[in-house]
Amino acid sequence: MQAPELSADELAAREAAEKEEAERKAAEQAEIERKVAEANRAWEERQQREREAAEAERRRLADEARKTEEAREAARKAAEEARQKAEADEAARQAAEEAEAEARRLEEEAEKVRQEEAERVAAQQKAEAELKLLEERRRAEAAREEEARRKAAAAAAEPDPYTEVKSPGFFSKLTTGLSKSSSKLGASLTGAFNKRKLDDDALEELEDLLITSDMGARVAAKITSNLAKTRFDKDVTDQEIKEALAEEIEAIMAPREQVVDFSDGPTPRVVLFVGVNGSGKTTTIGKIASKLKEQGAKAVLVAGDTFRAAAIEQLTVWGERAGIPVMSKPTGADAAGLVYEAIEKAKADNLDLVLVDTAGRLQNKAELMSELAKIVRVARKLDPEAPHDVILVLDATVGQNALSQVEAFRHTAEVSGIVMTKLDGTAKGGVLVAIAEAHDLPIHFVGVGEKAEDLQPFSAAAFAKALVGMDEKEPA
Question: Spans of biased composition, class Basic and acidic residues (predicted)?
Fold first, then answer.
């Protein structure tokens, strides 16, 4: 079949397509040739580099071989000359040996003289150091006596720090605040120990009851063991059990009772408040600030919780209520830098106290604990003794978890005292007894409400009675 004739346009299009295809193939061929040429050049250049490197290595090895041979020959000649000289002059060799022995003897004598001189100097320095230490101890003792006289005079002029504890209504507030804990423990005692013999079953039941009151197994075992020593197999009433428990609890907590006197010590006194999120640090600082303002103290509050804008606002409100200035920075700023500036300001303005609120930290968050350690380091650049107080604020509602918080913070931040908050909102108030037993740390305040006056100085006797549901006037 004869192919149809193509029009001029079709012929032109086909020619153009054939031309374009030819050009494409030519370009591809040129690109292939270019790449082949580049590969050949690269191969030739690599071969040249390898030849040059091989030649350089050959020259280096030849040079080393030459030097080695020269050194060997020189050593051989030197050895030969020495041998010939030694053989030719035996007397000289013996003289050299004798001279060397004499030199060693003189060196040993010189070393002995040096050691004796060093021992003499060390003994003299030790005697001088002991005399200096003795003089420093005498001065320190005199300073302590003077400080004791000053404190005694100041104490005679100042009000009793336990005035608040002794004031009317203190026990009532504490009892009300601990009502959930005391009602749980007291009601159980009333139901289980009404004219009952304190035998093994009763002691086991009492131990279980104390454990469920969040005092922990260690405290519960200690208390029941002590009760068994004096009351085992005797008939007891629920009131007698309460009185005995109050005595045991007070005995555990009395060594931890310490009303902190912020007016004492250096100026400015730097106080850090630490604790986990939601423990009540900011509120506690505000309440303490209100108390200090009433006592005439000049202080500055530091909003060191720069992670939470709400914490800064909350502390500002407390500062305004107390009439105490608050230093803060924008959210996310460096807390350590802010503390540094606050201490500088306190020194410049002759303030008495720097109260620092820190960011809430979970005890298992290493990076936050590291930041807290940084705040301590920065504060010590201005005062090597700062912070003078590190108060750990604990939330009573967390129960036994508070023990692990104390353990974590006391090693990281060198905690010097404790405040237990929110005792009015939980039946786990017994955990404070477990903390007092496990940790040798002063307990300064307990919080039993939202108002400033609801932050009360800790009293072991009052706490023990209130916890077991006794009246203030009942004997413990």
Answer: 11-120, 138-150
Q: Which residues of 151-173 are buried (b: 16+ CB within 10 A; e: fewer)?
A: eeeeeeeeeeeeeebeeeebbeb
Q: Is the pLDDT of residue 168 over 50?
A: no
Amino acid at 103: A
Q: Is 260 among the annotated ligand-binding positions?
A: no
Give the E-state strand segments of 163-248 in sequence order. Answer: 196-197, 235-236
Whether pTM exceeds 0.70: no
Strands, E assignment, 131-284: 196-197, 235-236, 269-274
Instruction: Give ∠ CA 362-417-258 in degrees, rounded to 5.
Output: 150
* 194 annotated to bind ligand: no
CA–CA–CA angle 406, 409, 410 (5° rounding): 75
Residue 165: the pLDDT is 47
**Was 40 annotated as part of a binding site?**
no
Question: Does 201 carry a binding-site annotation?
Answer: no
Question: Residue 73, class by beta-carbon neighbours within 10 Å (0-12 exposed, 13-18 middle, 19+ buried)?
Answer: exposed
